[in-house]
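Session log. Operator J.P. requested a structure for one protein chain; no other inputs attached. Running the standard single-chain path with token output.
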Amino acid sequence: MANLPAPPITRQISPRDRARPSGREPGELRDAARRLVVDGDGQRIPFGALFREHRAIVVFVRDAKVRLIVIGQSSHHHIKPFCSLTGYPHEIYVDPEREIYKILGMKRGEAATSVQSPHVKSNLLSGSIRSMWRAMTGPAFDFQGDPAQQGGTLILGPGSKVHFVHLDKNRLDHAPISTVLQLVGVKTVNFTNKHQIIDI
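Structure written below.
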């Protein structure tokens, strides 16, 4: 008998309500789903429409029927230059007023933590200095938005189901990509020897 892959681990992680069962809709998500995000052409779209019909990995930044959606916090005018610079081919929207960030409890500022992201190759100080330098020296980098705004990763949908929530405490505290991929049943990626970094 062939070994079947283990089913993905599914769990709900939320600092405010760890007892909420996976799949139940919190009030914050219901409110956030009504807010608008803006695509690269300036079209306004309800946030909830992005995960209404399929599960979606939603990352807020600074054939599995899963959509990868990135929500930024600057002007929509910066989406196409960002995609061109980085080669990012997936869906990207912006929440220029950071309404959804606030509703979902994403914080501003850096909280001290011993967590080290496997995907961030700089430390908190050098990363902050580089971000500030880029923001001060080039108009191409003003798409970064508020440098103190923390992001997060959510797995949402279809509809109002919440499968996973991780709110970043600081710029090094990201949910590991392979963990997020495992949670949606997508093949994971080994980043051990991946050293290519695009500094933006």
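Operator note: The first strand starts at residue 36 and ends at 38.
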